[in-house]
Amino acid sequence: MSEPTPSPPPETEALSExxxxxxxxxxxxxxxxxxxxxxPGLSRLLIQxxxxxxxxxxxxxxxxxxxxAAAFIASAVFQFAFFGMLHEACHLTAFAxxxxxxxxxxxxxxGQPMSPALMRAFHYEHHRFTHQLDRxxxxxxxxxxxxxxxxxxxxxxxxxxxxxxxxxxxTLFAAIVPASxxxxxxxxxxxxxxxxxxxxxxRLLTLIHGGAMTAAVLWLPELxxxxxxxxxxxxxxxxxxxxxxxxxxxxxxxxxxxRSLQTPAWLRWLLWNMPYHAxxxxxxxxxxxxxxxxxxxxxxxxxxxxxxxxxxLHGGREPQ
Length: 320
Prior knowledge:
Blueprint: H1 27-33, H2 39-61, H3 65-91, H4 98-111, H5 116-128, H6 151-158, H7 161-176, H8 181-186, H9 195-218, H10 224-245, E1 260-261, H11 265-270, H12 277-282, H13 291-298, E2 305-306, H14 311-314
Parallel strand pairs: 1-2
Helix pairs in contact: 2-3, 3-4, 3-5, 3-10, 7-9
C-alpha cells in the first residue's frame, strides 16, 4: 500500500500548483492525476539501478573487447536514464514514499554527478523562470544559450562535456567553499537556507567519486571506463535536453516556452516520461506515470510538438 503523499517542504510549494492556464485541466482531473504511488517507480528503480550496477561490474572486469563495448554502451544508457530518475526524485513524484524518493535520488546521483538537494535547487529555479535569461539557471545568464546552438557551439554541446564540467564543478565548489558571497556568484539558484544541506550532500558525493577516481589511479584503472561511459551518457543527454527549450521564446505562456517530444515508448520508459515536457512544466506536481494521461487531456493545447524524432530539430526543422 502506498504511503500518504508527503507535504512539500516550503521551498517546493510553488511547484505544487499549475504553471499553465488552469482552465485547461479541471480541478477534479488534476487532483486525480497528482496522486502518487510507489509501483511504477519501483520497477524502474530496480531495473535501471540494477542494470547500472551490473554494467559497471562487467565494464571493470571484462577482458574481451566486444564485452567491454557492450558494457560501455549499457552503462552509458543507464547513466543517461538516471537523469529522468534524479529529476522525478527531486520533485518527490517518483514515489509516494519520501524515503524511496531519497534512495532513487542518490542512486541517480552516482551517474548524474549532482546531489539531490543541488538538483532540486537548480531545477526548481528552472521551473519558476523557465527560459528567462536573467533567472533560469539552465541559461546561466548567457544570451547564446537561448538560441539553438549553431555550428561549433552545437558540436561542443553534443560532446556532453559542458554538463559534466558544470556538475562536477558545482559539486566540488559546494563541498569545499564555505557559505559566503561566492555562492551568490557560482550557485545563484541556491537559497541561503539550502546551503548547509547542499554542502553536506556535495561532500558525500565528492567523497564517493573522489574515492572511485583515487582507486582508478592507484589500483584499478578499468574504473575509468565507467567515467568514460558517464561522459558518453551525458553526450546523449545533451542531444535530448537541448530540444526541451532551446530556440523557443523567452516570454509568453509556459507551453510556448517548452517543447513536448514524440518518442518511442522505450525511450519514454528510460526517461521516466520526461519527453512529455510541456505537460510536466505546465503541471509539475503530476507524477511521471500520469503524464501520458495528462498529455491526452491537453494535447490539443500544446504549442510545440516534435515529430517523429529529435532529428527534426537537430536537422534544423521544427514542425508545429
